[in-house]
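Methods — Computational structure assignment.
A single polypeptide chain was analysed. Its primary sequence is given first, followed by the predicted tertiary structure written as structure tokens.
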Amino acid sequence: MTTNAGDDDRARPTGGVRERARTEIVERALASAHRQLAEVGAAALSVRAVARDLGMASSAIYRYFPSRDALLTRLITDAYVDLADAARRAEQAVDRADHQERFRATARATRRWAIADPHRYALLYGSPVPGYAAPVDTVEPAIAVGLLLLGAVDDAAATGASLRAVPVRAGLADEFAQLAQGLGASVAPGVLAAGITAWTSLYGHLSFELFGHLTDVVTDRDAWFETFLDEQIARIWG
């Protein structure tokens, strides 16, 4: 079948209009889902409720998110990516040779993001959603902040900095050595373990702060966080 130039010009916008309409619906659906996270939590997230909020039939919204798990996965992935972007921007703004400040900048940006969007933080690091298992493709965005922290440690080691190693129990040394190799890191297993300990401790600290466990314990949360960072730096850099 042949078409003239006018037919082509009319055909092209159709796909663009449809794609824009689809993008708009997806964005509205995600905004509705974010409101649900704040109001009822991730465990009660409902695709049908999103459809009602958008004034759509349930069958229509399932064309965009075929299940609750698909919607959860999109929310989780987007949150991990947004968090990683915020941490990366902060880390990249620091002098590459200042490894400790790169570590601090990553941690501070992570905290700022969590405080600004506590419901999305809770989606990532709060109680697991019953019946939901995150797919493998969420792993890469999930570890992005950790890789920034470990990157600062590894770059410091590459310059000859004297870093403190965590004693690693028998049976774990080989595992951490393989992990370092997989990450392309040059640090010793005990130093890598120290970096991972700091990474996991960061989320423990933030969870205590955001979920109310520091109420009537610490009032100056900013100073307490900087104290926490000082401790983590001392544990690694000595």
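Note: The two ends are 74 Å apart (CA to CA).
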